[in-house]
Each structure stands twice: as C-alpha cells, then as structure tokens.
Amino acid sequence: MRNPLSKTVCELEPSGIRRFFDAAGTMENVLSLGVGEPDFDTPWHIREEGIYSLEKGRTFYTSNAGLAELKEEISRYLKRRFSLSYAPDEVLVTVGGSEAIDIAFRAMLDPGDEVIIPEPCFVSYLPCVKMAGGVPVRLALEEKDRFTLTKEKLLSAITEKTKIVVLPFPNNPTGAVMTAGELQIIADIIKEKDLFVLSDEIYSELTYQGDHVSIASLPGMAERTIVINGFSKSYAMTGWRLGYAAGPGAIIAQMIKVHQYVIMCAPTTSQYAAIEALKYGDEDVAKMRESYNERRRFLVKELNTMGIPCFEPMGAFYVFPNISRFGMTSEEFATELLKKEQVAVVPGTAFGECGEGFLRISYAYAIEDLKIALDKIKKFIDTIP
C-alpha cells in the first residue's frame, strides 16, 4: 500500500506549545502560565449581541469576505486607531488571525519564494510558509536589540528569492515592539528591494508605552503590506474564532478565492458580535490593557529581583526571562519546574532555536495566580546548585 501521507506535512514539527501543555494536562493542580489567552470573559454587551443574533435566526452563511457591515466597521476602526485607510473590499474576515496568515502565504507564494521570519515568533509562520510551497528563512533576533528587527539583520537575510518579510510586532513571545523610526528603516529596505510584508498586528491594542504603529501607515507601504489582526486578544474573544486581513485589493481578492474554497465564511454569530465590539468596545479594551500593564510591571520587577533577568516587554501579554545562568536548557528548566512545583511555562525554543535560554511566561492571569507562581519559581531556582 502506498504511503497515504504528505511528505511536507509529515516533516512539520508539532507545536512546541501544545506538545508541552499536553504533557502538563496529564498532571493535577498545575498552575499554568503558558497559554496566550485572556483570563477575562468576553464583555457582556458583545456576548449579548451574539446571543441576539441567534435569537433573530441569523444562522445563515454570510458572503465569503464577511458581512458588509463588519468590513465597513473594520475599515473605520483601522482608520481611527492606526491611521490605515482601507476600503471594505480591501478587508477579508477570517476564522481567526491564523487563517489569515495561512491564506496570505498561499495567495502570494510560488514554489521557491523565500519568506524571512524573525524569531522568536508565533509558531504558525514557518509551517504555513512550507505548506504554501515557500522557503522559510529564519532570522534570529537578539535580546541586546530588544528583540527588534534591525537593518543589519534584515539585509543579511535578503536574497534574490526573497518575496515576503514577516513583521510579528507586538511580538509573541518576547513582548517586543518597534517604534515608528525603527519601522521606517525597515520600510525603506522593503521598498528598495521590492518586497512585501505580512504584518501580524494581533496584539496592536496591547501596547504600554504609546500607541501601536503599523508599518502599513508609512509612506509607500500600504500597497506592500498585508495587515493581520483579529478579536481574540483585544476583546477576549478567543473562542469566537474571528480575525481579518487588510491589504491591497489584488492580494485580498486572491485570498478570498482560497478562503471560499476551504472555509466558505467566518462564523456568522461571531461576525455580529464583532460589529458590537468595534463600535462600543474601546472602554473594555482600555480596562483590560490597564490590568495587563499592572501585571506586566509586577512580573518584570519580581523576576529581576529574584535573579532572573527579564527584558521589559512593551506589548502583548508575555515576558521572556533569561534563564541561561542556571545551566539548564529551556526545555529542561520548564520540565523540571513543572515536575517539582507544578508551574507550567513554555520553553523559549518553542518559538525558534534562538529562544534557547529563555522562557515564555504569560501574564494573562490574575495577580494572585502570578504571586503564587513566582513563589514556586523562587523555591525551584533556590534548589538549583
């Protein structure tokens, strides 16, 4: 019998995050600081709108690209918050930001096209590039540069086959952000080398030192950029599975073609709830951001105090402390911490090889839980010779 499986898929590594937490799930009384999911409930007025849509019998397919009203609201939101100008037909509503990433690569890549992926980063970029027939080029970012993409780093990775550069900022797992000035340097290279950008801005509402800046807002970059965003992180809507892409109409049209064959449309109930979120959810976002900021400052201070150096993140809801001084790999440290103290964190290597020596700790958890976890981490490191 011939092999029924795809060689490309078989060669993909399983998610390092899920592999680790599947193991943690077999243990009792584990305090998890690893999953990137808000601990807030979806705001009630957003849930209520979803419920109302069901009561009204709105259980039909929408158009492939999404409800017209939602696309119009997304366009208004992007203009209001990030100075991005998109017509509704330059917006595609997707099943989470992850689907938008996947179909952007599938719509833009031909076999052999190279995609520069700065790491540490979200785990989906590399496998999605491979499944689209592209060639991922991994680019290691460094703590000394605040885990930002520098001119020198980018130029070192560009070849004649480079087509797309992924910009994963605010960053998962490091919490790094890039300023307007830093993005302008990258934009100048993108234009000079005739490249495109996939800008993953799912954490755009979670920045703690000024508003997020999108590279698509810089001169000459809107026509070269696909902006990925969604509702999971900002509005605590992870289970609603709703995201979107915004970009040049020619690219969005081809993404819609892929989307209509593999998805049809995003969940209708979620789309109606998302309209409510965009119209009336600014105050909810602000309250959640304030809470995350309090947790962020607390966690960074306490980790540094106990002797675990921690770069100060300015976005998302993760810290990326350096544990290299303990003489253990990231995998070993996380595994032993789980076994001995029942605290689950993610090894930095789940986000790329350059994550060795680091851990990802999420602060999308209550302060009380963070305090308990920190006490356990302190107890654990005190046992290391």
SSE layout:
Blueprint: H1 7-10, H2 16-24, E1 31-32, H3 44-55, H4 68-82, E2 91-94, H5 96-108, E3 114-119, H6 125-131, E4 135-140, H7 151-157, E5 162-167, H8 180-192, E6 196-200, E7 225-230, E8 243-246, H9 249-262, H10 268-280, H11 282-305, E9 318-319, H12 330-341, E10 343-344, E11 346-347, E12 359-362, H13 367-381
Helix pairs in contact: 3-10, 4-10, 5-6, 5-9
Number of E-type strands: 12
Order of helices and strands: HHEHHEHEHEHEHEEEHHHEHEEEH
Strand ordering within the main sheet: 2-8-7-6-5-3-4
State the low-pLDDT regions, or none.
none
Distance between the termini: 54 Å
Mean pLDDT: 95
- Radius of gyration computed on alpha carbons: 21 Å
Structural shape: globular
Helix content: 40-55%
Provide a compact summary of the structure:
With 385 residues, the protein is α/β, with parallel strands linked by helices. It has helices at 7-10, 16-24, 44-55, 68-82, 96-108, 125-131, 151-157, 180-192, 249-262, 268-280, 282-305, 330-341, 367-381, and strands spanning 31-32, 91-94, 114-119, 135-140, 162-167, 196-200, 225-230, 243-246, 318-319, 343-344, 346-347, 359-362.
